[in-house]
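Sample A.
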Amino acid sequence: MKTSELETLIRRILSEQLAPAKAETKTHGIFSSVDEAVDAAHQAFLRYQQCPLKTRSAIISAIRDELAPQLSALAEESAAETGMGNKEDKFLKNKAALDNTPGIEDLTTTALTGDGGMVLFEYSPFGVIGAVAPSTNPTETIINNSISMLAAGNSIYFSPHPGAKAVSLKLIAAIDDIAFRSCGIRNLVVTVAEPTFEATQQMMAHPKVAVLAITGGPGIVAMGMKSGKKVIGAGAGNPPCIVDETADLVKAAEDIINGASFDYNLPCIAEKSLIVVESVAGKLIQQMQSFGALLLTPAETDRLRAVCLPEGLANKRLVGKSPSALLEAASIAVPAKAPRLLIAVVNADDPWVTREQLMPMLPVVYVPDFDRALALALKVEEGLHHTAIMHSQNVSRLNLAARSLQTSIFVKNGPSYAGIGVGGEGFTTFTIATPTGEGTTSARTFARSRRCVLTTGFSIR
């Protein structure tokens, strides 16, 4: 090879190696327009698709290692920016998402063999996934979905809620940097510098976005459903909690307080109403008070309803606020020891019961027996198929409730968050796809099932 040809080759190699690095330090996964972000994510996916599974594992391991020291700061920033929930519980949610979201081990291969040959069923990626994250659970949703979607082999365009913009963009950039250092591919996780409703609409309509994963309210899920794309949608829930006369009342009381007060009742899986058999209601409430609940008088309940649920709808300014903040908003005296949860005995048709309110105020409804409790729970849950909780020692009743309610999560004798792997078995998820039927999501949810057939071979039976 001539000297001039060698110099040209060296310059070309150096150019190819150095040019991406300049762009990489500039973008860090954050772009000025939806088109730029999605195009970059699509190019990243094409490269990622050629990588072995061990590359995906390396990225996920690095995410777990490098984000772990940042979880506390992310929780504090999330609580401060959104003005909802508390940093202690947000840290626990972040940690659950980081530690307990499955990676590539979720993508199990199955095979069938016989005289006709062999069939493999395997999971492969969709491409660029457009993921909408909420303001109620911003960082934990981004962590959870990043691990699941990258494990499945996809790249991700995140559409974070504008109310959680700063902490979301910081986290997205951090995850993209971690992925780049692990595999050399930039823009596997992207977003735009100014997340807006219009940007979300553009993302949903973009031809290079293969699938939508929407974690939010019914409005945004409905918008996604009109896109013509495959949608994995996590919608609203209004989880009822049943307590019958056979329940362990001490444990039930503690579990209910823990679940309903967690992050000031922001999680969509949290107990939103308590339906209790009348014969044990008094004892249950006494136990709940011993675990930090404050029982409101009827007059206080009316005053609180007026400010928290004006015209029957949740006051957004009070969503995710502390029990003390709710009391202050209603001009009700706050006890010297701040309550963990507010509780009030109400009628079955009270807005506290029928509306999802995302506030640490748990309405309690008395019913004569289990049959009435289940009938009311079905009415309250409204066929959303999201979450329900029940405390009972009667296995037949537990099974009947599970079959009747048909919720994606049904927790027996535990706090609601056991249903997402916190204090209970199973993996963690913050995208619970109820409207579209996938239920608790993991890596395999974000992959397509493929069937590979080999005829007349590989059967040794």
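Sample B, a different protein:
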Amino acid sequence: MDKILVVDDNPSVCSALTILLELHDYQVVTVSCPADAMPIIMYQSIALVLLDMNFTQDTTSGEEGKKAFYQFRQLQPDLPVILLTAWTDLTTAIELVKNGAADYLAKPWDDEKLLVTIANLIELNDVQQTSKQLSKQQREREQLNHQANLCGLVFASTAMQRLVDMTVQVAKSTVNVLITGPNGVGKEKIADILHQNSPRAHQPFIKVNVGALPLDLMEAELFGAEAGAYTGANKKRIGRFEAADGGTLFLDEIGNLSLSGQMKLLRVLQTGEFERLGSSQTQTVDVRVISATNANLHQDIQEGNFREDLYYRLNVIELEVLALSQRKDDILPLVEYFTQSQKVMPKHTKQALLAHQWPGNVRELENACQRAALLSQTEEWQAQDFGLTPVDVEHNMSEFEETITKAMIEQAIAEHHGVISRAAKALGLSRQALYRRMDKFEIKK
């Protein structure tokens, strides 16, 4: 709920404005002089100020209001201030409007005009603050891009910004990292960033999809094998750990590693030592291990399918990559990247893209963009090009709204600093729809 500060020495005016504004879902704070307004502006979240121009009896010059206005501007330069006076001094009005006053209304005011003015100014200020925040984030990202190698990662969400910041910070160390998240979210890209921004960036970076390795060859792939160690082993085989010596080894789908492989991996992490299959000679390597999984390793540990001691060796730092449905701000930038901005994206197509849940995450979105590039026959991107339909938006929005949980709303509002329009966009909702969900969950506006 937006909070409005009324600064007026007339109790009747304060009472009338309080009733009017509270009837229209505003929270109202009233004070009788500018001095009392200062600490409120400094320490409370005020959306707009209604400021009287005269406070001393028999004074009509407007100088008191003028002085207060400039003091408010020093405290909060972007705070919208509407000037109220029974004495319409146009010279003073023009001066203050030129210097940032939002509007200048004469007493007695027109209720409808005042309400429209307040609503428009608060909305405009939300947009401006959002724009400034985005500009700040863009500058931070550009600086981060300049200082770090992000390996072409495309993102716009606050959640991914935090993940990237942490990834770049962790990259400077040599600790083992576990990357978690559902299939298709880009865990391998995070591993790339970890290696490319580490002191080992110019050393080998070996990637192994553990889930794609046959069980009978998994240990040979990781640790190597001597000739004759198993059927078909006609010559000595160098394992991935040896190949990664001095550098980084990325083990994707680590939850699929066999128990015997887990035991050997634990030993390597503890001592740096292992033996090739069929050999008694101990090898020593210096390898940083980055692993990734979409599995619930805690459950695997309880079921006896994954070693708890290995889990804690791998998971010195955990980096969680959220599902695309939880970072909707990334959807349109990714579409622009995958489609190379070949065509205009109309609003209804954006709505379809944002409303879809993308269970296959970034991988599914990339495939949809490839489909669109092949099948599109119009000058603008259509929802059908991406395998979606406008009906998905028009008829399923109420069903989609029901999938938005209280936690998701609170997270979006926090990430966008309380700006409802930005939080709604991130969730794929209209502002009115978000307000409905907030009312349902009794989340304060």
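Observation for Sample B: The chain has three domains: 3-126, 150-322, 325-440.
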